[in-house]
C-alpha cells in the first residue's frame, strides 16, 4: 500500500526540525483493481450475441465473418507475440487492430479488448464507451459490465458498490464483482463484510488473486501478521510476478520489525515493475528515515519519472540534495514542488529557507521563506517546527553582520580622519656630495 501522506510529512518535519539543532472523504480501493488483458475470442467470457440487444440463447453461438475473424485472430496474435518476446506492449498498434475488427463487424469481445487497450492508454472515457458498447451488444457479457464498474469506481464508490451488488445478482457465479465489492468494503473499514465477500469469491474461483489480496490486507489491518503472510504465500503461488503481493509482504515484514526483509521485498517489487508506486514510496520513506540521501535521490527520481506531478516527492528530492551539499539543485526541486502544490505544502517554504540559510549563507531570503511557512502552517505548525528558532538565528546573524559592517565603516573612517590630522613629514636632508680629491683629475689617482 502507498505510504500515507501524514507519514511522509512527519518524516519531512523530523528532518527539517533537525536543522534547528545542528545539521544543516471518500472510500477508494486500497490497491488498483486487476483488469483483464486482451483475450482471444474463445476466452472472452460468453459467446457473441446473435443480435445487438438480445441476450444469447443457451448454447447459441454466432460465427464471425471471415474478414472479422481474420482481423480478430491477427490482433490476438500481435498481443501474444509481444508477451512472448517480453517487450513493452505497443498499445497504440493494438488499438488500431481492435478498431479494424470493429469496423469489419460489431464484435462484443473486440469492443471489450479495445476498452482494455484504451485503459492502458489512459483514455478513460473512451474505455468506458467501449465496455458499455460491449455490454449493449451482449447483455450477458459479465466481464464488460465489471470492467465498466471498475472504471466508474473511482468517480463514485457508492454507486460502484450498488453496481457490484447488481452484478452479483445478475452473475452469481462471477467472482470478480464480489472481489471488488470486498475491496470497497475493506477500504471503507468494513472488514467483516470484506472478509466474507472475498471468501465467497474464492469459493467461486480458488485462483482469485484479488480476493486473496483483500484477505491479506484485512488480516494485516486486524493485527494478524502471520495469517497475512500465509495468505500472501498462497497468492504468490498463483502469481509470483505480481509486484503488489511482493510489496505487501514487505509491508507485513516491516510490521514485524524486519526492516531488511521488508526492503528486500520492496526492491523485488520494483524490479518486476519499475513504476510500481507503493513499493517505490515505501523505499523512499525507508531512505528518508535512515537519512540515506543517495537512496532518497534514487527513489525520488524513479517516482517522478512515472509520476512527475508528485509535489511531496519533489520536496523529498530537494531535502536530499540539500543534505548532499547541492544547494542549487535543492532550490530547483523546491521550486518544482511549489509549482505543483501551490500553498498546500507549507514545508516547501521551511525547506527552502533552510537551504538559503545553511546551504547558501543567505539569511535575508531565508527569513522571508520562514515567515511564509509560519503564515501557511498556522499556530500548530509554528509550535511544532524549527522555523521560529531558525528565524531567531538568522536575525542574530544579520544583526551581527550589520554590526560588523558598521564597525568596519567606523574603523575606515577613523583611519581616514587620523590620516588627515597627522603632521606632514619633514623633508629628508640632501645627501652631501663626495669630497674632491686633491690633485685629482676626474677621480684619477693622485700622482706621487
Outline the fold blueprint.
Layout: H1 5-18, H2 66-85, H3 91-104, H4 108-120, H5 124-137, H6 142-153, H7 157-170, H8 175-187, H9 191-204, H10 209-221, H11 225-238, H12 243-255, H13 259-272, H14 277-290, H15 293-306, H16 311-323, H17 327-341, H18 347-359, H19 363-384, H20 387-421
Helix pairs in contact: 1-16, 1-18, 2-3, 3-4, 4-5, 5-6, 6-7, 7-8, 8-9, 8-10, 9-10, 10-11, 11-12, 12-13, 13-14, 14-15, 15-16, 16-17, 16-18, 17-18, 18-19, 19-20
Q: Can you give me a brief rundown of this structure?
A:
The protein is mostly helical and 448 residues long.
Question: Can you describe this structure?
Answer:
With 448 residues, the chain is mostly helical. The protein is 69% helix and 0% strand. It contains 20 helices and no strands. The chain has helices at 5-18, 66-85, 91-104, 108-120, 124-137, 142-153, 157-170, 175-187, 191-204, 209-221, 225-238, 243-255, 259-272, 277-290, 293-306, 311-323, 327-341, 347-359, 363-384, 387-421. Helix 9 (191-204) packs antiparallel against helix 10 and helix 17 (327-341) runs antiparallel to helix 18. The radius of gyration is 37 Å and the shape is elongated. The chain starts with a helix and ends in a 27-residue tail after the last helix. Mean pLDDT is 83; it is low at 20-60 and 440-448.
